[in-house]
From TrEMBL:
Protein name stated in the entry: Uncharacterized protein
Annotated source species: Nitrosopumilus cobalaminigenes
């Protein structure tokens, strides 16, 4: 299998408790059909157990230069893959 072209390999970090998604991110998720009107996430191929874990994780985004919720990273166009506690990121401008 060929290597994915990536600019960054970002470490996934974890916080205690759940984090609140910013409102613009929620609107984007609703518009793309990944969140229902009640605010429940509907990510295809992600188990409820994994989703619960993802809600406690964040990454130090090299593109936005800030800490962002992992779910925000997961739906980003730059997201390529999650491998062994790291995110493979294309690193393109948003």
């Amino acid at each position: 299998m060929a290597e994915l072209d990536r600019k960054y390999e970002v470490e996934i970090l974890e916080r205690e408790g759940r984090q609140k998604l910013p409102d613009p991110v929620k609107e984007e998720l609703k518009a793309s059909g990944m969140m229902d009107e009640k605010g429940k996430l509907k990510l295809k191929g992600v188990s409820p157990k994994m989703l619960k874990r993802m809600k406690q994780e964040y990454v130090e985004c090299p593109v936005l230069k800030e800490d962002i919720h992992f779910i925000q990273c997961f739906v980003c166009p730059n997201f390529q893959s999650r491998v062994m506690g790291k995110v493979l990121c294309k690193g393109e401008k948003l």
